[in-house]
Design brief:
Elements lengths: L1 H20 L1 H5 L12 E7 L48 E7 H12 L12 E3 L2 E7 L9 H15 L18 E6 L2 E3 L1 E9 L6 H21 L2 E9 L3 E4 L1 H6 L8 H14 L7 E8 L6 H15 L6 E6 L7 H10 L5 E6 L5 H9 L4
Parallel strand pairs: 7-8, 7-10, 10-11, 11-12
Antiparallel strand pairs: 1-2, 3-6, 4-5, 8-9
Helix pairs in contact: 3-5, 5-10, 7-8
Length: 368
Amino acid sequence: MFRIEADRARFREIVRGRIRQDLRKYLSTGELIGRAGDRTVSIPLPQIELPRFVFGQNPKGQGGTGEGESGDPSDAEPTEGEGSGGAGEGEGSHILEVEVDIEELAEMLGDELQLPNIQPRGVRELSSDGGRYNGVRMSGPDSLRQFRRSFRNALKRSIASGIYDPQRPKVVPIREDFRYRMRKSCPQPDSSAVVFHMMDVSGSMGREQKEIVRIKAFWIDTWLRSQYKNLEVVYIVHDAVARIVDQHTFFHLRESGGTKISSAYDLCLKQITERFRPDDWNIYPFHYSDGDNWSARDTELCISMLRDEILPRVNQFCYGQVKSAHGSGQFKKDLDNALGEEERIVTSSVNDRADVPEAIRSFLGSGR
């Protein structure tokens, strides 16, 4: 039994090592996103040998003992197969799907990209009810009855009433003697965070650009969930107007039209002021676009909103620009020129999927 457990543990370490070795490949593909559940992710690992039991001695060179002589043909008629192509001589590839906890995957991400743990800013914490059963009360369920204290009360009552006989020490507790354990409430700080994923869905953002956004959002959420017990995610899409959508719509919506980035920032700010007070929440807005905006005047409005309204309320604001054949990329230049000295704003450029790991590192590497 111990030998089997040791073999299992060794195999798990081999699998983890393979995942860590290929993690950068997964960072740049959307392969894991469709395999992610609430707690685990299914990861396909090719060319991993599965451990298996072999029964018996398996001696070589021994034939069967049935009827017939060596060289006699088999009575079975050959059947025609349904496959196509000729026979091959290469070894087949074996793919093993391994379930990995989201927490463990986040740990691998942090090690690979050397991400620091996030320090919640100020007193941005929600109190969760905690405590221990260190109190006593006179009523409660039988499962919480405290035997010693109940018996002691019964003994005191018996002695005080004169019915206790030392020669026949019999004590029978009654209902008034019973005492029950009580849980004393002890509020404990519990950091909570909200993530805003805002994406440009105008005509200039193609399928590949949206897939890159999808990959980045998955890994960002994976890391932040490992840092905060409570994490809310709000998805906002915008072209000339902005609206809140669910996760599936966010990643699969196809639209066309112009781009007005200020509409997304305005909606994000409204959510912050009405639903997610900065005194209670750590706030992380992420905006993804190809850099096109409908006018320089709207870009000036965006910069003003960021400087005066959004940045003072958030832990960090991140803008990720995805290269597009139809996008000018001007918005990142304008942000860098106007707000390049602001510590709470981080911008990154992604030309293709190979740039995704560094973009994630730049977003999450400050530990804010």
